[in-house]
Design brief:
- By secondary structure, this protein is an alpha/beta fold.
- The chain folds into 3 domains: 271 residues, Vaccinia Virus protein VP39 (Rossmann fold); 39 residues, no CATH class; 160 residues, Trna Endonuclease, Chain: A, domain 1 (3-Layer(aba) Sandwich).
- The protein contains 15 helices and 20 strands.
- Strands 10-6-7-5-2-11-12-1-13 form a 9-stranded mixed sheet, sandwiched between helices. Strands 14-15-16-17-20 form a 5-stranded mixed sheet, with helices on both faces. A two-stranded antiparallel ribbon has the order 3-4.
- Strand 15 and strand 16 form a beta hairpin.
- Helix 2 crosses helix 4, helix 3 runs antiparallel to helix 5 and helix 13 runs parallel beside helix 14.
- The chain is globular, with a radius of gyration of 25 Å.
- The two termini are 17 Å apart.
- The relative contact order is 0.12.
- About 2% of the residues have low confidence.
- The chain binds S-adenosylmethionine (SAM).
- The site of S-adenosylmethionine has 23 residues, from helix 1, strand 4 and strand 12.
């Protein structure tokens, strides 16, 4: 970072962000990472509640061995870090060229870079589950040295989902390492059991070994945590991001391994639990995520929790701030679909978005909808994955009708190539009973009399609540957004679940 900002959000692959030097060497006091676990699952974001509930894939945790992995294997094998090389070569002998090896390579490369940005003595907490924890511990030993593990924390939780032929899998593993000799640690305390309390009270404040016990302060916290449950569907803290972790869990680690004003980094920050906890505890923070939905949701979360004004104090990098940035995102999205650099954006978009093409997976994190999601977020539309087959609607707008009534719906389609009259006609043909109106979002402004005529022919609709009239069909663009223009429509309902306001007085204001 050129000028250190106390609050930083980066949209992108943490490998690229770490390699770019945007996070200074040895500038971070504590890292918490909750990366994909190789769980072979897809994770969603849930938008809205009740009948308007919709879900969209946020990220995938599916791993297969492919040509790119041979390149990263060669890179690591020829790299300077002999211990990491040895670990990866050993894994290859055990696992062969498999999805697990691909995952471990991915993690190994990122852990090396994380070590570089961590201050000497700083702490790293890696959160995972037993799918890969045994391998990840070896990776951490290789990167941080086996002598520098402080704890293997077992986080126990309850909840549904029980396998038929095994014990219920109800714990995660959090490895706590330091870079070199660990800096000071702030001990955390937990309540004594009722039996211990009774015993100590009956013995006038001492335990069976005659040493004093401070019942008010509590007992030194152990390395197995069963007092914080995972977020259940009904939990008020839940924001609809499938892998969201409880704030209490993050607050415990942040309190233990950092102090006010310290820098906390989460390179896989999801819906922002770490940055929320860090904000609340007066730490500086850096969050990185490859999913636009995550970055967008975090900004809504922080605005709900700490007030909209906080957004002005957050430096967000990687999100388009001008037309060139939007075009770059469109190109990156196409790369994620096709696996090759698009020469002609228009032709590439036509080809890539043909039926079926979007179902293909390229790379680790598909990222095939990033441009569409960004474009939808500009007007608060709920993004919609085409995989569910809905005739090319990329997003849904929800407008309040009357008090208590189901919202009215608008269809959004996104295109980064040129917008042709046929595209506008095709979207217009979808205007049926399900949608009041439709908006086609392009990269650049699409003028032209033909397009204007096609839109005008569809006429207007009247928003019964306000009595105002709006066009049924319109074309809007990223270019118009950067010129400060909005589509002609009622104010949509914000699609994310609202986060509860943070408890006042806990946080110490930073800058
Ligand atoms: C398990 S979730 C983290 C959840 C988070 N702890 C929370 O409480 O919300 C993992 C996150 O890593 C992100 N991710 C996956 N690959 C990434 C990468 N290469 N760089 C940055 N983020 C990535 C995913 O988009 C996802 O949001």
């Amino acid at each position: 970072m050129k000028r250190a900002s106390p609050r930083n959000l980066f949209y992108g692959d943490c490998l690229d962000i770490l390699q770019s030097g945007q996070i200074g060497r040895e500038s971070v006091d504590m890292i918490y990472l909750d990366p994909p676990f190789n769980s072979k699952a897809k994770y969603n974001v849930i938008f809205g509640r009740g009948e308007d509930r919709a879900q969209t894939e946020a990220f995938r945790d599916l791993w297969t061995w492919n040509a790119e992995d041979e390149d990263s294997f060669a890179r690591v094998a020829q790299g300077d870090d002999r211990k990491l090389t040895a670990a990866i070569e050993g894994f290859r002998q055990i696992l062969g060229p498999t999805g697990m090896l691909s995952y471990l390579l991915y993690m190994g490369e990122r852990l090396l870079l994380l070590r570089d940005v961590l201050k000497p003595g700083g702490s790293l907490y890696l959160h995972c589950d037993p799918t890969a924890s045994h391998y990840l511990k070896i990776l951490l030993d290789a990167v941080f040295d086996a002598r520098h593990i402080s704890n293997e924390i077992i986080w126990c939780f309850r909840g549904g989902g029980v396998p038929r032929r095994a014990f219920a899998r109800k714990h995660n593993v959090i490895f706590f390492y330091s870079k070199g000799k660990a800096k000071a640690f702030n001990p955390q305390y937990m309540e004594y059991s009722d039996a211990s309390k009774k015993l100590v009270e009956s013995r006038g404040g001492v335990s069976i070994d005659n040493t004093a016990r401070d019942l008010e302060r509590g007992a030194h916290m152990t390395d197995w945590w069963a007092d914080i449950n995972s977020l259940q569907t009904w939990s008020p803290e839940r924001l609809g991001y499938d892998t969201q972790k409880p704030l209490a869990l993050l607050e415990r680690m942040i309190r233990a391994s950092s102090n006010e004003g310290d820098v906390v980094l989460d390179p896989f920050c999801g819906c922002g639990t770490t940055v929320d906890a860090a904000e609340n505890l007066g730490r500086r923070w850096i969050g990185v995520d490859i999913s636009y939905l995550a970055i967008d949701l975090i900004q809504h979360r922080l605005a709900d929790r700490y007030g909209k004004k906080l957004l002005e104090k957050i430096r967000v990098s990687g999100i388009p701030t001008d037309l060139a940035g939007a075009e770059h995102l469109a190109r990156r999205t196409l790369y994620n679909i096709t696996g090759s650099e698009p020469q002609d954006l228009d032709a590439a978009w036509q080809m890539a978005t043909r039926a079926g093409a979007r179902g293909e997976k390229h790379g680790k994190n598909a990222g095939r909808f990033e441009f569409q999601r960004w474009a939808c977020s500009l007007i608060d539309a709920v993004p919609n994955d085409r995989e569910i087959g809905d005739d090319g609607v990329d997003g849904i707008l929800l407008w309040p009708d009357r008090e208590g009534a189901n919202p009215l719906r608008g269809a959004v389609q996104v295109k980064s190539g040129a917008i042709r009259p046929d595209d506008v006609r095709a979207l217009g043909n979808q205007l049926n009973g399900a949608y009041e109106a439709a908006i086609l979002i392009g990269l650049r402004e699409a003028g032209g009399d033909t397009i204007r005529r096609i839109c005008a022919r569809k006429g207007n609709w009247t928003h019964a609540w306000t009595g105002k009239r709006y066009p049924r069909l319109q074309v809007w663009s990223a270019e118009a957004h950067f010129q400060g223009k909005r589509p002609d429509m009622p104010q949509p309902i914000v699609p994310y679940t609202k986060a509860a306001r943070a408890a006042l007085g806990k946080q110490k204001p930073m800058l």
